[in-house]
Write a structure and sequence with these properties.
The protein has a domain at 105-253: Uracil-DNA glycosylase-like domain (Uracil-DNA Glycosylase, subunit E), CATH 3.40.470.10. It is 25% helix and 15% strand. It has a six-stranded mixed sheet. Helix 3 (171-188) crosses helix 4. The chain is an alpha/beta fold. The N and C termini lie far apart (166 Å). The protein has helices spanning 4-13, 132-143, 171-188, 199-206, 231-236, 240-251; strands at 105-112, 115-120, 151-159, 193-197, 215-219, 223-228.
Length: 260
């Protein structure tokens, strides 16, 4: 049971200023009579509402809203997560240029009068006396006013050369070889016109293509040359013979004197 000094100490600690016990406390000091009087009721004063004038009230300017400042959260201040490491793709190796196929042809050099003839062999083998291609060549020589029994000069020029070693055998090497072979024959006996019969003869001796058929070419080191379709092509497409005849009439004066 608490005595009065200790009770006061507890009440002060709990910040209790006025208190009344529900029952009489032993050893307690007598209560003051004014504290036992009932409290008078508190009446709140009535506030009369203000009457607004009839005139319209002026609008009150609103203050601009303050900008909202984003306060960084602790999570935002954290160090950014490291980016995933992506393995660098190895650069693709540069595509190697496609190898140029080696030229493959067989050419026969012949002499007829004042002309040299470089003829592509249709079968790759030397001419035989009864070959249709050789008979057509004889007809063309007669029409041109040249001997119809041409002289065969050397063995056919076959490409690629069947030699061992690292010898270059591409298109440029084939052109140099064919032109060198003809130039050596021209040094032995010049000619008035060089006939190039066949696609490969025109390409590797005249440095031209099929568009040069039936035209005269000027080849450096070899002089004047006449580009003609191959004998096999003339047999397969006889309508080409008329174009050959027209070109022959224009060029005939190169190997046939005017008084003949």
């Amino acid at each position: 049971m608490l005595n009065e000094p200790r009770r006061r100490a507890y009440l002060d600690a709990m910040q209790v200023v006025h208190w009344l016990p529900r029952a009489e406390l032993p050893f307690a000091a007598p209560s003051r009579p004014e504290l036992l009087q009932p409290l008078a009721p508190v009446i709140a004063p009535q506030v009369q509402p203000e009457v607004q004038p009839a005139a319209a009230a002026e609008p009150v300017a609103r203050l601009p809203a303050r900008p909202k400042v984003e306060v960084p959260r602790p999570a935002a201040l954290a160090r950014p997560a490291p980016k995933p490491v992506v393995a660098e793709e190895a650069p693709e190796p540069a595509a190697k240029p496609a190898p140029v196929p080696l030229p493959r042809f067989s050419l026969q050099l012949l002499r007829a009068g004042h002309c040299l003839l470089l003829v592509e062999l249709p079968t790759g083998e030397p001419f035989q006396s009864r070959d249709p291609a050789y008979l057509l060549l004889k007809d063309m020589l007669r029409a041109a006013g040249l001997p119809d029994s041409p002289q065969i000069i050397g063995e056919p020029v076959r490409w690629p050369l069947l030699q061992r070693g690292n010898m270059e055998q591409g298109p440029e090497a084939a052109r140099d070889f064919v032109q060198g072979f003809i130039l050596a024959r021209l040094e032995e006996a010049p000619c008035a016109c060089l006939w190039l019969i066949g696609r490969n003869a025109v390409r590797y001796a005249g440095e031209a293509d099929e568009l040069a058929f039936n035209r005269e070419l000027q080849v450096e080191g070899l002089g004047s040359a006449w580009a003609l379709p191959g004998l096999e092509l003339l047999m397969d497409e006889p309508e080409r013979k008329a174009l050959v005849w027209q070109a022959m009439r224009r060029l005939m004066t190169r190997w046939k004197p005017a008084n003949e």
